[in-house]
Amino acid sequence: MCGKIFLRFISLYLILLLVNTGPTLFENQLLADDWPQWMGPQRDNVWREDRILKKFPNGGPEVVWRSPVAGGYAGPSVADGRVFVTDYVKGDQGGASSEIKRVTGIERVLCLDQANGQLIWKHEYPVRYTMSYPAGPRCTSIVDGGLVYTLGGEGNLFCFRVKDGEIVWSKDLVKEYGTKTAIWGYASHPLVDGDKLICIVGGEGSHVVAFNKHTGEEIWRALTSSEQGYCPPTIIEAGGVRQLVLLYPDAMSAVDPETGELYWSVDYEASYGSIIMTPAKVGDYLFGGGFSNKNILVKLSKDRPTAELVWRDLPKQAMSPVNVQPMIDGSVLYGFHQDGSFMAIDIPSGKRLWTTGEPLSERPVRCGTAFIVRHEDRYFLFTEQGELIIANLSPQGFQPLSRAKVIEPTNVAYGRDVVWSAPAWAGRCVFIRNDRECICVKLSEE
Q: Which of 32, 122, 304, 331 stands 20 to 30 A from 87 (CA)?
């Protein structure tokens, strides 16, 4: 009898606790979301958490914690209560090979506590950089099913256990596939699809390779390209099938994600191999673009896995993205052109609806960068100047609503200080890194 009374008392206590604490204790755990990979859970740059502030407080949002890191362009990922950041600690300076300085140092994988930024584990390995802009790794870590995958700037691919950092398997892509690092390094974020980890590798017949994500065993390889490029793979549904779409220096192509069998290919010519964005699907169309006023639009067939060219390289229309993945909203793409112009373009016409130098300056700055995510009916931008901006974007224009400086730019590009690393939006916070620290900034409503 005493036991039953005690259990009833505990049940009543828990109910009262839930009522009195409201959403603070329980809903934060139930509704908080992760950002386990580049561009978020669904790889679309949409932040789906609720109760996010609509205006920054006076003095800016609260910085919950700061944790020291070293150099790198790789954005953080957040999952399972942990934050993963890869960086590079510069070592001895070597000589020069052609026009690219060789630098020897250490790449690191850091696992931090999401709540306080404290280091839980790290893995480090020596690496010789042969790439330009040798600040550090480029690719965001991917967390999936208790495993975390990292890809370093020179093609060192690792699979770790999330809980303790134990290596499950690893690959040296350059060595194992007889290729070489592209001029700006390995920058194509890998993609998890079912039991596969799909990576842009390079080499003869192995532009793209699917590995067993649990063992690292190769499942299939496909395509050959003059260079790897830097474009992350993406999977779409079109023509009645799933298609793995690849945009690389020679073409835009699609293959069967289960076998690597080619579905279709449309010629594309990238300047200096510079193609960075992942193809953007807008209705029945796929858009891509890169440096030197390059862009392409193809139309997908509705009833079979084929595509046809609509237009290519519109010099005074469309956009040619460099550092920023364009944001899709209906039939409109918002993004940054190579000259730093922020613009909206219509698909399929490619017509520019508006252009502006904002939010970076009155006039565009070369390769100007501000990473874009959508939250409900508005957008958050993180600029290369270390600012967060809340804004409205529409076919009529860009309307900034609130702005706050949160971190210092620590790198240099085109003679100006920049931070070129995409944030992670999780737990009603934003996680941002430069070449000195990773910070957690609170963005929840009070």
A: 32
